[in-house]
Amino acid sequence: MARLDVTETFHGITFPGHLHTQDSLHYATHFKFQDTDTLIVTYPKSGTTWMQEIVTVMSCKGDAVRAQTQPNWNRAPWLEQYYCPDVLNASQENRILTTHLPYNLLAAALSGSKAKVIYVARNPKDVAVSYYYFHKMAKFLPESGTFSEFLSAFLEGTVHYGSWFDHVKGWTNNARNIHNFLYVTYEEMSRTLRASLERVSEFLQCPLVEEELTSTLKSCSFSSMKKNCMVNYSLIPQEIMDHRKSKFMRKGKIGDWVNTFSEEQSCTFDAIYTSRMADSSLTFVWCNPEQEPMLKSRRDPDHHQAHHILEQTLA
């Protein structure tokens, strides 16, 4: 399926036609979740591949063979992409699924389900930069233009997959409506991967002994994933993803946005962020790059309970 120049519009959001059709998007919104499913939810470029790898290796008790022999899109297929039904029909195991869809499009499908939902968020400034470079190498995405032009579209929510602000607020503000929900940040995984693995392990009810945890930690490091052709998308033909222009797994650093944003762009972004996130149930503080990014809830007692609720398996 090529359709590299095709754009699908679904419920006001645009999607690349190379991977999405009206039928595949409709399939996702009417999906029959099983209670044993694990659904990884992200806005693009927010740690999707990383969490796919974590859940895969963890489900294999630290054995990395599957992660090193099967492409991640087969191990944890995107629910809204056209090939997903075929992948799931060939699998008899507990299913790992991935989606970039906003909450409102999956709310009905998840209603009453005990499927485990892991939501991964990332500093939106780093997301914008990573997404910009992804547009340069992914032939199924529109031309990015200058970074200034792309940033304007990102802030307006007119890029493919819609608004970052709506996506994050939609899922986190509705965490109480999801039976089993875990919230993780890219920054937490980058800063303390072992602790993040322990949280995910507990959430998935997949206890790991020390040796299994160590093996998972090794397989899920950024350097290991970057070398793994089942993860780094180097298997994809150059006509679809041109790694000469930019690598799929580029830097993986937190706070690297500072090397792309101008001071004016950063101030504009901050002002819009403050306005758009005012009604969010979760308050972020993305610190200066020389500081460790952290959640305000960890140092502000007023927000501790809200963050604690999002971290738990909700009844």
TrEMBL record:
Listed GO MF terms: sulfotransferase activity
Keyword Transport: no
Keyword Cell inner membrane part of the UniProt annotation: no
Cellular compartment(s): Cytoplasm
Stretches assigned to coiled coil: none
Domain Sulfotransferase intervals: 35-280
Major localization listed first in the record, in broad terms: cytoplasm
Enzyme class: transferase
EC number per UniProt: 2.8.2.-
Example GO BP: catecholamine metabolic process
Entry-linked SUPFAM superfamilies: P-loop containing nucleoside triphosphate hydrolases (SSF52540)
Keywords in alphabetical order: Catecholamine metabolism, Cytoplasm, Transferase
Gene Ontology CC entries for this record: cytoplasm
InterPro entries, A to Z: P-loop_NTPase, Sulfotransferase_dom
Family to which this protein belongs: Belongs to the sulfotransferase 1 family.
Protein name: Sulfotransferase
Native organism taxonomy: Eukaryota, Metazoa, Chordata, Craniata, Vertebrata
